[in-house]
Amino acid sequence: MTSAPQAGPEGTPALGEAAATGTGGAPAARAVPEATVARLAVYLRMLGELAEQGTDTVSSDELAAVCGVNSAKLRKDLSYVGSHGIRGVGYEVGPLLHHLESTLGLTHRQSVALVGIGNLGHALAGYGGFGGRGFPVTALFDVDPDLVGIKINGILVDHVRDIPHVCRERDVTIGMIATPAPAAQGACDLLVRAGVSCILNFAPVVLQVPEQVEVRKVDLAVELQILSFHVARRHLAEREGLDAVNGHAVVRS
Amino acid sequence: MTSAPQAGPEGTPALGEAAATGTGGAPAARAVPEATVARLAVYLRMLGELAEQGTDTVSSDELAAVCGVNSAKLRKDLSYVGSHGIRGVGYEVGPLLHHLESTLGLTHRQSVALVGIGNLGHALAGYGGFGGRGFPVTALFDVDPDLVGIKINGILVDHVRDIPHVCRERDVTIGMIATPAPAAQGACDLLVRAGVSCILNFAPVVLQVPEQVEVRKVDLAVELQILSFHVARRHLAEREGLDAVNGHAVVRS
DNA sequence: CGGTGTGAAATAATTCACAGCT
DNA sequence: AGCTGTGAATTATTTCACACCG
Fold first, then answer.
1. Contact A221 B193 (CB under 8 A)
2. Are B234 and B251 in contact (CB under 8 A)?
3. Residue of B241 and A151 predicted with greater confidence
4. Which residues of A are less than 8 Å from B124 in CB distance?
């Protein structure tokens, strides 16, 4: 009956301070805000594209523009991880890219397990490399006897009951749950038992986990409902007043 | 060359005030925080489950528990939409459920278009009803000649070039983009031209849209990288100090 | 009582604006 | 001259705590 922190759209409170002791501790990057972490991943991707194009320096303004954030935020985000831009010039693409990769823990390949090979799970299994930089899916699980034993993308589907065994063996660090709702908590428990401490949950349930486990939720229905809210609000605003969004008149295309 | 607001994990600034006029205007719910909207959708789902079980009242404590939030937050969230709980008792499941549905604009069925019938798109197309309450996918688009013309789940796949025509005809209000990255902006532009003002983007790009269009992003790679960061942090904390998360010693199961 | 609704306090995230480096 | 790094101000969100009501 632990309370579930769960981090979906919203962030977890923050990141714990390293230690209360005033003396010890590393000089390591401290307390990177959760919101910042999410954006670092975006910066990283764009830096990758710039690198491919052969660009070797960017200003915060330029990088911010392609990432869709404002430059002050970008600079502050980078400052949390102790960035090393060059004043008057900008950031060196290569080194910054490397630094962010390291900050995000992408230097060691993370092994991913996927539980639930239904509609969505199948797509996730075949996603191949997850947009380039590698999160190899190394284990697949389901309960359906028709699925257990087949191979998808070269990976054998094991029975859910083997999660603890197989995950430990393949050193899985991240678990993805794409089961139907009723099966999700069970899958989660098995992953936790296997020592997996980071979980990406696609099932529409709130998972109960011990506090050392980090859960992020991707909930398609919720995303659509949020958009639906905006559709409704727009209609409402359109109907009565004139100015709707941000005090500006709605423009017809 | 508009700056892109884009709302992924993080929220958009807020919701605009309805009107500056002190007098007129409806008694309508004003300025619901974005973070709250996301949670309303979760409350709604859980209320649905409670209703199915035949429960007809819940306290904020109980509902909060199953939704994985704390009860103060839940009460405040509901207060933004002018909730009508009964002091000393709790909330009536049925009426509250209905009220939230209406707030989220779920009373009018929203018609959804999906662009990009690849790996992920295929799964989304076949998702069927999106977790129950209806966001019927009524239009599918791709550029691949092998896909255009086939039916998935009873819906014909049209060519991307027909987006404006078909979307207007079928009164699409929400667009989902599941194309490869390079094609995403083009798909987006076509949807916008078709009058679609809410977009759910699965492609790993930052879409440029006019400001009246609401974009939400679901980025699998980013989600994994966020988790990866936590894996890395955990390792780091484990290696040196003892206390890692929230100042508590890491407990071995 | 028991539980909601909500001001006020605390915390987190964003933006401003400018000193300081190259 | 240009652009980073960052304190300080602002804004958003969460939590507290308690008056008030059924």
1. no
2. no
3. A151
4. 120, 123, 220
Mean pLDDT on A57-84: 96
pLDDT of residue A25: 36
CB B67 within 8 A of CB B50: no
Which of residues 85 to 114 on B have a Cβ less than 7 angstroms from any strand D atom? Answer: 86-89
Select the residue from A110, A174, A224, A234 to test the B interface by mutation, using most B Cβ atoms within 10 A. A224
For residue B110, give the nearest of A9, A44, A228 by CB distance: A228
Task: Confirm whether any atom of chain D, the nucleic acid strand, is less than 7 Å from CB of A98.
Answer: no
Superfamily of domain A111-218: NAD(P)-binding Rossmann-like Domain (3.40.50.720)
Class of domain A34-103: mainly alpha
CA angle B201, B205, B211 (to 5 degrees): 65
- Spell out the residues 6+ positions from residue A164 whose beta carbon is closer than 8 angstroms to its own: A190, A193, A194
pLDDT, tens digit (0-9, with 9 covering 90-100), for B144-176: 999 999 999 899 999 999 999 999 999 999 999
Residues of chain A with C-beta less than 8 angstroms from the C-beta of B35? 9-10
Q: Which of A133, A218, A235 sits opposite B218 (nearest CB)?
A: A218
Q: Is the dihedral of CA B72, B76, B79, B83 positive or negative?
A: negative
Q: How many angstroms separate the CA of B238 from the C1' of C10?
A: 30
pLDDT in tens, B83-106: 789 999 999 999 999 999 999 999
Instruction: Compute the distance between CA of residue B92 and CA of residue B101 in angstroms, rounded to an integer.
Output: 14
d(CA A96, CA A90): 11
Task: CATH 1.10.10.10 in chain B: give the residue spans.
Answer: 34-103
Give the pLDDT band (50/70/90) at residue B238: confident
Considering only CB atoms, which chain B residues are within 8 Å of A245? 16, 211-212
Residues that constitute the known binding site of B for NAD(+): 116-121
CB-contacts to strand C (7 A) = A 11, 13-14, 33-36, 69-70, 72-73, 75-76, 86-89; B 10, 13, 58-61, 71-72, 75-76, 78-79, 83-91
**pLDDT above 70: residue A128:** no
Number of neighbours of residue A198 by Cβ within 10 angstroms: 24
Considering only CB atoms, A174 lies closest to which of B18, B224, B253, namely B224
Whether B38 shows a pLDDT value over 50: the answer reads yes
Cα–Cα nearest to A155, from A144, A166, A143: A166
Burial class (CB in 10 A: 0-12, 13-18, 19+), B149: exposed
Whether residue A22 has pLDDT greater than 70: no
